[in-house]
Write a structure and sequence with these properties.
The chain is of the alpha/beta class and 260 residues long. It is built from 11 helices and 10 strands. The strands form 3 sheets. A 4-stranded parallel beta sheet has the order 3-2-1-5, sandwiched between helices. A 4-stranded mixed beta sheet has the order 4-8-7-9. Strand 2, helix 2 and strand 3 form a beta-alpha-beta unit. Helix 9 packs across helix 11. The longest helix has 18 residues.
Length: 260
């Protein structure tokens, strides 16, 4: 499992308290700290000393942190999109792993909660390792990395979906305004413009709307996300794609493995 953190000390005890008991005996948790200044790295080093996780500390974007965590893990199945403000519900990880194991057609699984209030913070991606590496992995982005990383798997028809009642609890919910949780446009147009940039690298609108449907359960949120996508497209004024042609393999700009 790959976890990326930066200045999340107040959430880590609840996050890891729910997450670590869900790992199988042979499972591992790799955490990348992207340059915390609030004591997160020190807290994680204590858990590393107890043998409960592996820690890498390096200044990085969210996307690069996720990618480095996956590369540092040798597990045949990797779980990503795990954030420090997610308190995983018991049994979710086991159910997701079983689903992936029994579905050879889809080496990538997107897990969402039907009743989760904030699906952006409570979704999981499960990858067979070879599929992750073949896809090119997470890009070096601060936002929108969760969209781009699915670009190649969606194109190849690799992505399956699992909908559960709930994936987990958003530990930051109490800090968000009610509107920020209820409205999918809370992150602003930058998120949608980041998605539109991915179209130039090989996405189609159908690809993106399929992803949006997977993570924004509920008609109101989905339709609002669609509307905002078109609004961002009008501002962004999409031109000819500058990325590789479809089928040309992973797009450029990926991150190299960390030095040994």
């Amino acid at each position: 499992m790959a976890l990326t953190v930066k200045d999340m000390l107040s959430f880590l005890p609840d996050c890891l308290g729910a997450l670590l008991p869900e790992l199988a005996p042979d499972g591992e948790l790799v955490v990348v700290d992207g340059g915390s200044t609030d004591g997160s790295a020190e807290y994680l080093r204590g858990l590393e000393a107890e043998g409960r996780l592996r820690l890498l500390v390096t200044p990085c974007t969210t996307g690069k942190g996720r990618h480095l965590a996956v590369l540092a893990s040798g597990a045949p199945v990797v779980v990503t999109q795990v954030d420090a403000d997610l308190k995983l519900r018991p049994g979710v990880l086991r159910r997701a792993l079983e689903t992936l194991e029994h579905d050879p057609r889809h080496p990538v699984l997107v897990v969402v909660g039907r009743k989760d209030e904030n699906p952006d913070s409570t979704k999981l991606y499960l990858w067979r390792r070879e599929a992750y590496l073949a896809s090119g992995g997470y890009p070096d982005l601060r936002i929108g990395e969760d969209l781009q990383v699915l670009q190649e798997p969606i194109r190849r028809g690799w992505v399956g979906h699992l909908t559960l009642p709930r994936v987990g609890d958003d530990l930051r919910a109490a800090q968000r305004s009610p509107g920020a949780v209820a409205r999918p446009w809370s992150k602003g147009p930058a998120l949608y413009e980041a998605a539109l940039r991915r179209f130039r690298a090989g996405w189609t609108l159908r690809d993106y709307l399929g992803y949006l449907r997977a993570v924004r359960r509920g008609s109101v949120r989905y339709l609002a996300g669609v509307a905002l996508t078109f609004a961002a497209a009008a501002r962004f004024r999409l031109g000819p794609r500058s990325g590789p042609a479809r089928g040309a393999g992973a797009p450029p700009g990926r991150i190299s493995p960390p030095p040994r």
